[in-house]
From TrEMBL:
It comes from Lacinutrix venerupis. GO terms for molecular function: ATP binding; ATP hydrolysis activity. This is ABC transporter ATP-binding protein. It comes from the Bacteria. PANTHER family: SPERMIDINE/PUTRESCINE IMPORT ATP-BINDING PROTEIN POTA, SPERMIDINE_PUTRESCINE IMPORT ATP-BINDING PROTEIN POTA.
Amino acid sequence: MLKVNNLSFNYNKSPILKALSFNVKPGEYLAIIGESGSGKSTLLKVLRGEYDLNNGTVFWKKEQILGPKHNLVIGYDFMKYVAQEFELEPFISVAENIGQHLSNFYKEEKKERIAELLQVVELTAVATTKVKLLSGGQKQRVALARALAKAPEILLLDEPFSHIDNFKKQSLRRSIFKYLKDKNITCIVATHDKEDVLGFADNMLVLNNNKIEAYNTPKQLYKDPKTALVASFFGEFNIINNDIFYAHQLKIVDSSNLKAIVKNNYFKGHYYLIEANLNGENVFLKNSKNLEKGAIIYLQKIKKPH
Ligand SMILES: Nc1ncnc2c1ncn2[C@@H]1O[C@H](COP(=O)(O)OP(=O)(O)OP(=O)(O)O)[C@@H](O)[C@H]1O
């Protein structure tokens, strides 16, 4: 179990993380979300021992994670971290980068391990290509495979799919998260993208104002977002009479006391997102057809989220 107890951290005077406490079980996937600058990357770095804490403790099983004041070399062997800027060796091949820290003593095992990881990150076709010739997204996948090479107990990932194109992203996510579950690797991922979370993460931690604003399963937070920040992670939402409603929870009806004027239509594929003005406030709803600007519509809240 990763046990984070009362963790506080500042780079200088102003606090970045204040009194955070949470646990992550072996094999669990915890997603860290929050606005840009909320401290997601900082939290990952602190968890790997890159900085000394101002207060609190972090333990993995019986071992305390400590910062540079206590360790000559930053980091721990059982934990791997993939930063937003991944550091690879540009002049050697993809396979060589992945196997860089694997022992040459067991040549056959090393070869098999590299082949397995190339498959997980879907890079078998470029195994012998020099890394400097790869795209940003391919490099990101090499960094992921390299972090997995020595089978860490915990993996810390900062925006792991941010450089990867939409065609590849979904299959890659499924492949990576399945691999991590199969191998019981604990995983903490900082992300902006709900697609990294929904269907994969066991729990979600929302950082805001230096603190944990919400911590629960993605399903629970989706069904009952207590704050606008949590709701905004999942999609367009509205606050009507102090209640939060997603865009799909507003329906157009023949008449109601929620009278709105259509301002804009956005084509979204299988639906249109309609922006309308309701008593001076912007509201968003989903509709199968686009609507004329200026049209008067009546809305009904179709489902209370909780
Ligand atoms: N090395 C540093 N020294 C001083 N301040 C820093 C340092 N790194 C980050 N910060 C500050 O700490 C705060 C949190 O930054 P952090 O990168 O952890 O946020 P984040 O949530 O990961 O953001 P993003 O989603 O944009 O990556 C920001 O205000 C940032 O300016």
